[in-house]
Amino acid sequence: MENPTRLHVVPDVSPQMWHVTLTVAGAAVDVAEVKGALERLSLEHPFLLSGRYAADRAEVRYWEEATDVVGTLRLAVGLWDEHQSSAQLPAWRVVGVEVLDRDTFHRRGRYMHEAPALVGAGRVLPF
User: Fold this and answer.
1) Which of 32, 56, 87, 93 could be disulfide-bonded to 83 (CB atoms 3.0-4.6 Å)?
2) Residue 94, beta-bridge partner list
3) Any alpha helices (H) in the chain, and if so which ranges?
4) Residues 84, 31: contact at Cβ < 8 Å?
5) Which CATH architecture has domain 16-114?
6) What are the domain boundaries of the chain?
């Protein structure tokens, strides 16, 4: 029997914003086609911040709303496939995903503007 005086704490499952960098790659296509596809994706997906592209890869950065990092990863991995037909995206596969909470994203941005963005291999620096 449960103790009626014990309070049950419900974890906070409120959605929050996560910064996502999604990288996809595959067989080379015309760069104008890739650029147009990313422009269409930006119209379809809210919070898209930027896109970079080449003939054989693309990277998009955007904000995603989810309750945790695992949910954000699931959404990020599915983003390209979900919009492939409607935005006429190349048939590429996900080769990288980075997800950061808002605080880490802003903290990293401040650091990169205060010190060199590239850090030598094996070098360890404080936040």
Assistant:
1) 87
2) 24
3) 31-44, 69-83, 102-114
4) no
5) 2-Layer Sandwich (3.30)
6) 16-114
